[in-house]
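Quarterly update from the structural biology core.
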Amino acid sequence: MNLFEPTRAAGLARLSQFVAAAGRHYQNTRNADLGPDDRSNVSALSPYIRHRLVTEEEVLQAVLARHSPAAVEKFIQEVFWRSYFKGYLESRPIIWANYRQALATIKLQGGLLKAFDAATSGHSGIECFDVWVKELIQTGYLHNHTRMWFASIWIFTLRLPWELGADFMYRHLLDGDPASNTLSWRWVAGLHTKGKTYLARPDNIETYTQGRFTPTGLARDAVALEEPALPATQKILPMPDVFSGGDFGLLLTEEDLHAETWGVNASHVAAIAGVAATSARSAQPVSPLVTQFVNLALADGLKRASEKFKVPAQTLPSLAPEAILVWAKANSLKTLVTTYAPVGPVAEQLLILREALKSSGITLVELQRAFDSAAWPHASKGFFAMKEKIPFLLENIAEATRSQLSLI
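Predicted structure, tokenized:
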């Protein structure tokens, strides 16, 4: 079942359809999961924003053109939650490294394997959870409130390692994002805000699913998980690369598929290529639905970039240096331009690629969007610190977007 057409046009159409409901209707009804056939109370834009088929700026501009900031305050906050998580993880990459390391060391065998298989096949015995598992697998999407219930039941009722649950969800979500997914699971477990957990309660589930589910047998308390203290020193947020000029190749990844707004000099685009890296999400198989969505979204991004810059575009097999070097040399490229990839699989691969290209005399330039540069510095603590800055950020981002000159 594919509820999301993987194109920018479809994302813009969904945004246009939602804008009128972004105010009081969204604020009053957003926590309700009405089921996969009715997402009228939420935007369902996350798969498009995740891959920047539609950008955060466009979403904010659209709702603010129709409503006052006060009327859409709650929706605006939800847009910034994604930026908050990205900025937070960007300054604490050790969290991502620890999560990946933990996954690699968990031994799925014996009783753990049996419980894991039951949970991920929709045979846990908890009706609502089993329905959500099947919905996630079949659609690649879950309501945000349901994701919290799901994680809570996984951790506190089924008592399965949170890392396995985060990995399972990341492998199946069309909007799967390293930062949002990892940190949301940690928040539920009491690791993000130390000691603060989220407990899935039967009455809450019954209320917000409008009586579709009245679960029994759920954990009655949620004792926060513990871990070794993280280093106090945070990583300094990245500065955007600067490139002085000359011809270059555009390299699109699933992190940003709207090259038309990268701010590049169209007359110097000599070649365009794109790479999907969904298989790097996990050592376990990634959902075919996710792979298909990203591949088609990439094709859409390449088509639009080709039309914009009047240069043929092609899909490359991987971000492996060998594949990129073949393309770069075939097009006599000395500079490749992409967008900065936040902490996650694509960033890991770009780091390897950068060094390999450098040894071959090719420069990799990673542009950073003004939206990220403005928002991420305010994600050093809890979300409240960013929330207070939202009015300033809205003006700052609008001004940066208006005045951003061509970087190349």
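The two ends are 42 Å apart (CA to CA).
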